[in-house]
TrEMBL record:
Cellular compartment(s): Cytoplasm
EC numbers: 6.1.1.18
Organism of origin: Aquirufa nivalisilvae
Domain of life the protein comes from: Bacteria
Annotated binding of ATP, by residue: 36-38, 42-48, 231, 260-261, 268-270
Main location: cytoplasm
GO molecular function, one term: glutamine-tRNA ligase activity
Keyword Protein biosynthesis tagged: yes
Name of this chain's protein: Glutamine--tRNA ligase
Record domain Glutamyl/glutaminyl-tRNA synthetase class Ib catalytic: where: 29-336
Domain Glutamyl/glutaminyl-tRNA synthetase class Ib anti-codon binding: 339-438
UniProt cross-references to HAMAP family, sorted A to Z: Gln_tRNA_synth
Broad EC category: ligase
Length: 555
């Protein structure tokens, strides 16, 4: 018998396994996914979702969905709803739906405790003054003149900040740590700032808002999060995360960092994605060219393909760039097994079968999915006049062209072998119409003709054809790695990322296609019906081509 090899664990799985083995968490582990509701989730977030929910599933634990809503300026309820939809669609259920804003009162009390311990103070300095006092990584900072205010004065001022007595920017609450600490985040970081803005959940109840560093760890602690997983850039925040928890003497949660996912030919920050939406480079957050979960769903990606992608890229400790073709490979692999096959002609030219009776329709039975017999067969109407793909005919074909040309024979998928007799040209020299004869004994499945042909092409019966619009997508950016480009990424937008074909002919069964459920257009790729389909006007998105054509083009 084959030996069962244990699956190799990533570094986070190793940590969890060791913690459990040491008996640290008899109740099981607790993780959380903490998005800020300031945009739609992207594939990078999917990585974090799969990791957090995946660890809890694997080791027996739970995962909270916590909206990190401490910045009222950029956050909206629309984003909250989209995030919930996306996480659920990816296939995960959260133990609790929570909001950092629900902790505002507790966080305020925590801040009061730190003031009482002389570990926090109200600073009247301007943002510029504070920045200039911060020092540099090699030079120590200068203490603020307000650093030694009495506990009583700090308590009074902090209460009055809350009461709305001061305008934005007039005061901040800072932790009193060490102005010469080698880690700049430990040089008396901000805990609270004044912002007279309405919050999407708390309305006008608050005009002071906690900073990320003061809110995040305390929220983790309140929820009893055992493994707080975030991306590498928070590595330098960890000493501060630990400092607050230690000084407040609350549940000791631990932060672990992993490398964020960077994907080629796209950008992956909500702020940049919002810029693409606002500047109308794309038609919204779910434009199928976007790397958002909602765009991938609209484009025909499945939750399984995204989970599989996240599994394959693994969990790294160092930043790297993943080629977008790996994501495409994952959806192709999934759809090859699950998508039904149909015929659609993207660039049509008319083919007349001269010896086929006029007015006759034959229902040919074609397998829905050769990879899955249980999907059965469907009837596809065959008639004398068909559309075929323009590229499947050549007036002057080279030797190894196994499709149609004068005198050449080919099989029509699921139907008959035909031989080309003649063709007509338009005035501009393009092919207008092709004439061929069919061999009645060559019917697929009951072929007694003894003729062997090398090529098979797809077709659609003209009287039965449905016209459709098809949208083809390409890379959003023409540059591979945009992660270091900053705002310059806008200079690298691919002007040909969207191509619209407005006269595609598809077989009648595709009238029943469902939005977001991908099907295969034989020889052409995977496609799915778009939500823009209306009143019989079919719109399809190409999910992905059948083969990786991008790598070839680049050579
Ligand atoms: P963005 O810059 O896109 O807004 P963010 O990190 O600010 O990203 P949050 O909403 O704060 O977004 O993130 C929620 C969680 O998702 C965090 O734990 C964050 O570390 C994680 N995350 C965000 N982007 C990525 C990424 N590219 N790869 C892996 N995890 C990510
Ligand atoms: Mg953010």
């Amino acid at each position: 018998m084959e030996e069962l090899k244990p699956k190799s664990l990533n570094f986070l799985e190793e940590i969890v396994q060791a913690d459990l083995a040491a008996g640290k968490y008899p109740q099981g582990i607790f993780t959380r996914f903490p998005p800020e509701p300031n945009g739609y989730l992207h594939i990078g977030h999917a990585k974090s979702i799969c990791l957090n929910f995946g660890l809890a599933q694997e080791f027996g634990g739970k995962t909270n969905l916590r909206f990190d809503d401490t910045n009222p300026i950029t956050e909206e309820t629309e984003y909250v709803e989209s995030i919930k939809k996306d996480v659920a669609w990816l296939g995960f259920s959260w133990a609790n739906e929570l909001y950092t804003s629900d902790y505002f009162e507790t966080l305020f009390q925590y801040a009061v405790q730190l003031i009482e311990k002389s570990l926090a103070y109200v600073d009247d300095s301007s943002a510029e003054e504070i920045a200039s006092q911060k020092g540099t990584p090699t030079a120590p900072g200068v203490p603020s003149p307000y650093r030694n205010r009495s506990v009583a004065e700090n308590l009074d001022l902090f209460q009055r900040m809350r009461a709305g007595e001061f305008p934005d920017g007039a005061k901040v609450l800072r932790a009193k740590i060490d102005m010469s600490h080698p880690n700049m985040h430990m040089r008396d970081p901000f805990m609270y700032r004044i912002r007279h803005v309405e919050h999407h959940r708390t309305g006008n109840a608050w005009c002071i808002y906690p900073m990320y560093d003061f809110a995040h760890g305390q929220s983790d602690s309140m929820e009893g999060i055992t493994h707080s997983i975030c991306t590498l850039e928070f590595d330098v925040h960890r000493p501060l995360y630990d400092w607050f928890i230690e000084k407040l003497e609350i549940f000791p949660t631990h932060q672990y960092e992993f490398a964020r996912l960077n994907l080629s030919h796209t950008v992956m920050s909500k702020r940049k994605l919002l810029q693409l939406v606002n500047e109308k480079i794309v038609h919204g957050w779910d434009d199928p060219r976007m790397p958002t979960i909602s765009a991938l769903r609209r484009r025909g990606f499945t939750p399984a393909s995204i989970q599989n992608f996240c599994e394959r890229i693994g969990v790294a400790k160092r930043d790297n760039l993943i080629d977008i073709s790996l994501l495409e490979f994952c959806i192709r692999e999934d759809l090859n097994k699950s998508a039904n096959r149909y015929m659609a002609v993207l660039d049509p030219v008319k083919l007349v079968i001269t010896n086929y009776p006029e007015g006759q329709t034959e229902d040919l039975l074609i397998e829905n999915n050769p990879e899955d017999e249980s999907t059965g067969k469907r009837a596809v109407p065959f008639t004398r006049e068909l559309y075929i793909e323009r590229e499947d005919f050549m007036v002057d074909p080279p030797k190894k062209f196994f499709r149609l040309g004068p005198g050449l024979s080919v099989r029509l998928k699921g139907a008959y072998i035909i031989q080309c007799e003649s063709f007509e040209l338009n005035e501009d020299g393009t092919v207008k119409e092709i004439h061929a004869s069919y061999i009645p004994e060559s019917k697929s499945g009951q072929d007694t003709s003894g003729i062997h042909v090398k090529g098979t092409i797809h077709w659609v019966s003209i009287p039965h054809a449905e016209v459709a619009e098809v949208r083809l997508f390409d890379r959003l950016l023409i540059v591979e790695d945009a992660s270091e480009l900053g705002d310059d990424f806008m200079k690298f937008i691919n002007p040909e990322s969207l191509q619209v074909l407005d006269k595609v002919y598809v077989e009648p069964a595709l009238k029943e296609a469902q939005v977001e459920k991908a099907v295969q257009f034989m020889r052409k790729g995977y496609f799915c019906l778009d939500k823009d389909t209306q009143d019989g006007h079919l719109v399809f998105n190409r999910t992905v081509t059948l083969k990786d054509t991008w790598a070839k083009q680049q050579k």
